[in-house]
């Protein structure tokens, strides 16, 4: 018998074991500790497969809308579990559907894409992959943790199929492309996600972060920020670096803009309101002794409140035009591209899910006091009418975090080339939390 058949047989055994777990008809009567123990028992034998899957995906990262291999790997996993899988939804997205009688339809989302970052973790399975990004070859790394999400997503699918005697309805597992480009969710919706497939009654997604592993975090209402992409091109008149008086220096414009821009955040915005403007890319010239004609900047704008967002965008435009005027340069090109909108968790669903998390994880289930600064295009599913709970899991060693705090050292977070979630127990926590959340809303 193959390794896969052995795994399927173990999951079938788990399904029979879980059938003995005492459950009542209401969410409050769900025997969460017993159900969690049953998942853990099987994960002890199944974890090796999930760990291997995680490391394979980590070692072969792919950028947004280029995730052909990643999507194929996940599609194969889901078909082996009995899901009906459709590939190529929203270019490289996948939709896996599993029907188990009448009942609610529940969406579970994972992201497929990685980042244009050179990994520096030193891990044995570190990525050395390269792909094309904005017309240039670049290193690629799962520096955001989407590989952890994918392994937990597959593990959750395994658990739910094994426990199908405990729930009823339709599972809709989504492998979404291009989350980092803040366009994959919209792409799938535009490709008929909610017309070609069942419209979900509930939705769930998770994200690993630089908190201690074993912890789960949640928040009703606004969970994440909005994001906008900022692109500015300053124009000048190039020339010899030894004769700047004969030029109009766009690099000087860009430098002045980057510094003055922070005055918009610190002086024009209410200090009590969240708002961030960061420049992450500067492209100007190729030689040290040549003043170029143009300087191109790319950045990001983050906020929670629409009024704060508009105030910062207005300040960006005025600042860009002002520094060009000071330099006697032509007006710059300023483009603000709307990105991910704030993820707003459904209050009732999140409160219900929080009770399950508290029963499962105790003090390791923590309510977040305020929204996070990152953004996420899962918001598009919510805007399309899917009541959802988007929650977080920790991914780093608590001992390492304590030592870093005591030494006053920063800890690598998402998007850092040094960000390295610990697979075990991070994947395990993700499987536990997601499986319990889904069973809670689909229980018989």
TrEMBL record:
Gene Ontology MF, one: N-acetyldiaminopimelate deacetylase activity
The keyword Zinc is annotated on this UniProt entry: no
Cofactors required: Mn(2+)
Domain Peptidase M20 dimerisation: 230-319
Name assigned to this protein: Amidohydrolase
Superkingdom: Bacteria
SUPFAM superfamilies in UniProt: Bacterial exopeptidase dimerisation domain (SSF55031), Zn-dependent exopeptidases (SSF53187)
UniProtKB keywords: Hydrolase, Manganese, Metal-binding, Signal
Stretch forming the signal peptide: 1-29
Coiled-coil segments: none
